[in-house]
Model the fold of this input.
Amino acid sequence: MKILLLGKNGQLGYELAKQLPAIAQLVALGREELDLTDLHAVAQAVQAHQPDVIINAAAYTAVDNAETDQVNCYLINAAAPSILASEAKKIGALLIHYSTDYVFDGSKTSPYEPSDTPNPINYYGYSKLMGEEGIKYSGSDYLIFRTSWVYHPDYGNNFYRTMQRLAKEREVLNIVADQHGIPNDARDLAADTVKLLQQPLAALKSTSGIYHLTAGLEAQTTWYDFAKTIIDAMPEKVCRQINPIPTSSYPTTAKRPMWSVMLSVMPS
Done:
């Protein structure tokens, strides 16, 4: 099996690039090798490599910047995945694509299911939803995995590593305590993907659809509680106090859903 991986330098892509060679011939591309805003180049990459599986772990993830950098955000999160799906259909490949909890508005109080109606409240979420729609209507075989609050304890820029850094610099931290979600370790997301790919491709193609890939409801938390868990486990820190604050006390350019807990539902 030959796999074409896009986004090899992101948190999830980094882990996939480490784990996938155990089960497949891997071609891994990052921003340096493939500019996802160049849609012609995206199509050419698929045709040049002729993979059995395309895994798109690339995304525009700067949620606040997306509000003003809408063109690049749309090209990377919506247009490029749509092209990947169209090219996948041409060569009979399976497309695996990762989406986000931010396709939901956060108005629900029970876990979101894949069948729930999306209603993004920021441009990042909108662009990811448009990526999902483009893939759905391409006619390709695809698996879309929505996940949330992705982090890697040893790699990249993320909440986990930011909290560790700030805990070594500041005695007091104020962390938002009224946004609820499920943190997901990129290493686990990659491992779940690799495990899934050990099934026959024909079987996976027969389960085309949108799924939720998360650590499970028992991992549900808030940014405040997640920060406390991270910092409490640190042997060395200067932080002595973590204060819970409401979202209203930490304004951001883009709105965030207050509740984005998703029920993990995977192909069976």
